[in-house]
Amino acid sequence: MSAFIAWLEKLNETDNKARAVLRRSLAFEPGQYIPAFPYVEPFVKNDDGWRRAMHYLVAGLWAAHWRQGQTGQRMPLAKACAVHQLQSGSASTERRFINVLDADREQLPHRLRQMTALLAEQPIDFEQLLNDLLAWSYDSKRTQNTWAREFYRTLTPSPAEPTHEMETAA
User: Fold this and answer.
1) End-to-end CA, the chain
2) 36-89: pLDDT as tens digits
3) N or C end of the chain: which has fewer CB within 10 A?
4) Alpha carbon distance 166, 82 (integer Å)
5) Element (H, E) at 17
6) pTM score of the predicted model
7) Which has the closest alpha carbon to 59: 105, 112, 5?
8) What is the pLDDT of residues 92-114, one digit of tens each?
9) Distance CA 137, CA 73 (A)
10) Cα(91)–Cα(42) distance, integer angstroms
11) Can you say whether residue 45 is alpha, beta or left, with left for phi > 0 and alpha for psi between -120 and 50 degrees?
């Protein structure tokens, strides 16, 4: 677990208002809610850019998503979306997921808030989410491509190898 997510988990045990403050920070642009500064600034130091904003966003999402006694292996966001779609049967999950993948820097916080709210029952790996978001704006769209592969591979496992009968019939 990253130092940042471990810090949030530890903080949650000792500061009963930290989660509420971080949850409230989601109503503002990432890094603009002053009461959240003590909980995030130690990890962003002098960075005023994307890295800082993503730490605030992930802290807020973590706080909003946190559930007492949530069990299960934490999974990357894309896999959590696919699992939610498989469990709920809701086709709108894919549409929302695609909207997240297509989000630009300004849209991303809003779309991620919506998505993590939808995934309330899925244990999300927030460390992985932070790492992925830090690479969001790369020209190669590495994060978006990785998420798409993981989502669709979870929804549709690889088809079985062709059987001998299928090969001879062709």
Assistant:
1) 51
2) 999 999 988 777 799 999 999 999 999 999 876 566 789 999 999 999 999 999
3) C
4) 30
5) none
6) 0.87
7) 5
8) 999 999 999 999 999 999 999 99
9) 28
10) 41
11) left
Residue 166, amino acid? M
Instruction: Tell me the two tokens of residue 26.
Output: 């989601």
Please name the residue that has the structure tokens 């990785």: 146
Give the number of other CB atoms < 10 A from CB of residue 130: 21
Q: Give the pair of three-digit tokens for residue 54.
A: 């993503």
Give yes or no for a contact between 150 and 76, defined as CB atoms under 8 angstroms apart: yes
Rounded CA-CA distance 113/28 in Å is 12
CB-based contacts of 53: which residues, under 8 Å, 6+ apart?
Answer: 29, 30, 31, 109
Are the C-beta atoms of residues 28 and 53 closer than 8 Å to each other?
no
Find tokens 């309330």 and name the residue. 120
Contacts of 60 (CB under 8 A, 6+ apart): 22, 23, 25, 26, 30, 36, 113
Tell me the Ramachandran region of residue 139: left when phi exceeds 0, alpha when psi lies from -120 to 50, beta otherwise: alpha
Integer Rg of the chain from CA:
18
45 CA to centre of own chain = 23
Q: Which domains does the chain have, with CATH numbers?
A: 3-155 (1.10.520.40)
Strand partners for 124 = 75
